[in-house]
Each structure stands twice: as structure tokens, then as C-alpha cells.
Amino acid sequence: MDYRVGQVLDAVKEAGVDDNTIFILSSDNAGGGVIPQTGPGSNGPWRGDFFNTPFEGSMRVPAMIRWPGKVPAGVVTEQMLAAVDWLPTVAGMVGASNRVPKDRPIDGVDASAFMLGKRDTTGRDSYMFFGNDGELMSIKWKVIKTIFRYTVDSPSPAINSGYIKPQLPMMFDLSSDPHEDSNLWWTDLTNGALLAPSFKVIIEYERSVKQYPNIKVGEELHGL
């Protein structure tokens, strides 16, 4: 991968548009879960993998962005950003926010000011994660992860298991427990107050879906 990325960077530089090209290197999910096909891999300190959801190892990926003279170099951050944020963010960076559709809800947030070094935060403080059945799996709010359903990888790979729904939503403090080992309910039942931000996210999502129903498979999309 390093070699191929280098080839692309060299080609853009040779074309004379190096300083006017935005490079973004990221992924849509973490690795693992199908070892015979993809080979061994590591998601670092994070629990879970591609099929062992919705733990951080199934969703958290690195992301790098480069735009010489515009995006500050050498910045390392733990700010939250989702793949759906790239559309409004890149549009904002190049002064084309007016081209982002206004006739429908856009899931992404515009983090262009953060990318250009004009703001300290991306503007995203929560993220909803859904299963392959379309139902909610978890909500991450700042450093608190609330899990409503999950999979297990023991004694067989998670790809072979169904979803498990705990009696109470599991909660983890990612700042002190990045591997999601210590369910906060286990040590302190007063943590129920931490559910409030997640319920607010759910209410806002359900209100949006009611106003703008999701397009069904095979259905024509109108209003573009």
C-alpha cells in the first residue's frame, strides 16, 4: 500500500497540481473476522473486528488528510469523524458547501473548519452504528459507548453468531477502558444518567426518518 500511495503522490506532483490536490486515506471499517480470506491483522488495542461488532475494533479506523498550505501538517488528533462527514467537509474546504443537497437530511457534519486548523473540534460528538439487519447496535457519545446489541466470537467466529441483546444497554468509558472490558453498569447503577445523550440521538434520528422516510430497496428516488 505504501508503494502504491507513493506512486499516486509522485504522479500528482509530476502533473504540477500537488499543492492543489486534497489527499484522503482512510477505510470504511476495521480488519479481521475472516482470517482465511484476508489473512491475519490487528486492530491495535481495540476489541472486536469486522464481524465482531459493534466494538471499537469493528468500526474505528485511521484517517489521514493532506492539502499542502491549507491543512496543517503533523497534527495528530482523537477527534471523532465519520465516513459520512467527508461529503460536507470536503465541500466546505473547497468553498462548495452550496452544492451539498438541501432537499434531504445529510448525515455528515461539516468539519472543514477543523481540517483547515480554524477550529479545535470536528463538530461531531456522537455516532450511531447499525447492524446488517438495519437495526441499531450502538451509540458512541463523546467517550461513552452504549451498546444495545452485540456479537461474540467465542467459541466460533462472530460471523457464525447472531446478535445478542443484553438486559440493559452495556456502557463503556473509552477514555479509561479502550478495550471495552468493564461494563459501567457492573460497578455503578447510577450510570443510567449517561443514557440520556444516547436517547436524545435516537429521538432525533427517528424524527428525521419519520419526516424523510428511508428509500426502500428498488424504490425510485424522487426530489433530486
How do you describe this structure in short?
By secondary structure, this protein is an alpha+beta fold. The chain has helices at 2-14, 35-38, 56-59, 86-93, 112-115, 184-187, 195-211, and strands spanning 23-25, 64-66, 126-130, 136-141, 144-147, 170-173. A four-stranded antiparallel β-sheet has the order 3-4-5-6, with helices on one face.
Structure description:
The protein has 224 residues and is of the alpha+beta class. It has a single domain (2-80, 125-211), classed as 2-Layer Sandwich (Arylsulfatase, C-terminal domain). It has helices at residues 2-14, 35-38, 56-59, 86-93, 112-115, 184-187, 195-211, and strands spanning 23-25, 64-66, 126-130, 136-141, 144-147, 170-173. The strands form two sheets. It has a four-stranded antiparallel beta sheet with strand order 3-4-5-6, with helices on one face. A two-stranded antiparallel ribbon has the order 1-2. The chain is globular and about 60 Å long.
Task: Explain the layout of strands and helices.
Blueprint: H1 2-14, E1 23-25, H2 35-38, H3 56-59, E2 64-66, H4 86-93, H5 112-115, E3 126-130, E4 136-141, E5 144-147, E6 170-173, H6 184-187, H7 195-211
Antiparallel strand pairs: 1-2, 3-4, 4-5, 5-6
For this entry, give a set of tags.
single chain; 224 residues; alpha+beta; Arylsulfatase, C-terminal domain; globular
CATH topology description: Arylsulfatase, C-terminal domain
> Distance between the terminal alpha carbons, to the nearest Å?
37 Å
What is the subunit organization of this protein?
single chain
Query: Please, how many domains?
Result: 1
Mean of residue pLDDT? 90
What is the count of β-strands?
6
* SSE sequence, one letter per element: HEHHEHHEEEEHH
Query: Based on CA inertia axes, which overall geometry fits?
Result: globular
Radius of gyration: 20 Å
